[in-house]
């Protein structure tokens, strides 16, 4: 893990896009360890493309460099796209069993994750029957149990009702206590008020700091 306040993400893109369409041109961005960075922009501004590039999946046309000093976790806009277990417990366990951990460590980390993310009572529940907020909570928990250094959120609140939105936003805020670095993309500025800084992504050509 990077030392406190050191640079953990560095993005320098000459150009990036699809076929003859450039989404990014002469683009650069840095994020420091423990920082919560908000990326604000309209649909099509390149928010998801940027997050995927940070995660190691740049677009087909890519000229530049992305450096991330640590493990990356990605939380999708729609949690259905990343939940694969039949039950809450199975979904969290799946990721843990793909790590080089012994059985005792897996069970301990599983139990800790269920308790930390308030999923203990739901551990045997069919993931298909979860509410939107419960699914998003599970998606975050399943990533966090893998001990990432950087967490990328793609519109994490957009598919939630008002009550679930407040609950998941509170959960994301609490991740500061775990020394997580977060990049949160949204089309809604209100979703990003708790970030250390918010940047307006303007067609991938410029970054205007909003706060």
From TrEMBL:
Pfam families assigned: ABC_tran (PF00005)
Entry superkingdom: Bacteria
GO CC terms, sorted: ATP-binding cassette (ABC) transporter complex
Keyword Nucleotide-binding tagged: yes
GO molecular function per UniProt: ATP binding; ATP hydrolysis activity; ATPase-coupled transmembrane transporter activity
Classification via Gene3D superfamilies: P-loop containing nucleotide triphosphate hydrolases
SMART domains documented for this protein: AAA
This protein's record includes keyword Signal: no
Domain ABC transporter: 8-210
This protein's UniProt keywords: ATP-binding, Nucleotide-binding, Transport
PANTHER family: ENERGY-COUPLING FACTOR TRANSPORTER ATP-BINDING PROTEIN ECFA1, HEAVY METAL TRANSPORTER
Family per similarity comment: Belongs to the ABC transporter superfamily.
Name of the protein: ABC transporter ATP-binding protein
Source organism of this protein record: Kosmotoga arenicorallina
């Amino acid at each position: 893990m990077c030392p406190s306040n050191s640079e953990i993400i560095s993005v320098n893109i000459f150009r990036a896009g699809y076929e003859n369409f450039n989404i990014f041109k002469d683009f650069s961005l840095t994020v420091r360890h423990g920082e919560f960075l908000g990326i604000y922009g309209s649909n099509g501004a390149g928010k998801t493309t940027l997050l995927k590039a940070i995660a190691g999946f740049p677009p087909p046309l890519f000229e530049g460099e992305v450096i991330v000093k640590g493990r990356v976790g990605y939380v999708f806009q729609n949690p259905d796209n990343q939940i694969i277990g039949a039950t809450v417990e199975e979904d969290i366990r799946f990721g843990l069993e793909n790590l080089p951990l012994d059985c005792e460590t897996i069970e301990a980390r599983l139990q800790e994750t269920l308790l930390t993310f308030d999923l203990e009572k739901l551990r045997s529940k069919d993931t298909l029957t979860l509410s939107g907020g419960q699914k998003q909570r599970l998606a975050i928990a399943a990533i966090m149990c893998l001990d990432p250094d950087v967490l990328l959120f793609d519109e994490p609140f957009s598919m939630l009702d008002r009550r679930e939105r407040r609950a998941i936003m509170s959960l994301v805020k609490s991740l500061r206590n775990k020394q997580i670095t977060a990049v949160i993309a949204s089309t809604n500025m209100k979703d990003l008020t708790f970030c250390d800084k918010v940047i307006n992504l303007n067609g991938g050509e410029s970054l205007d700091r909003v706060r």
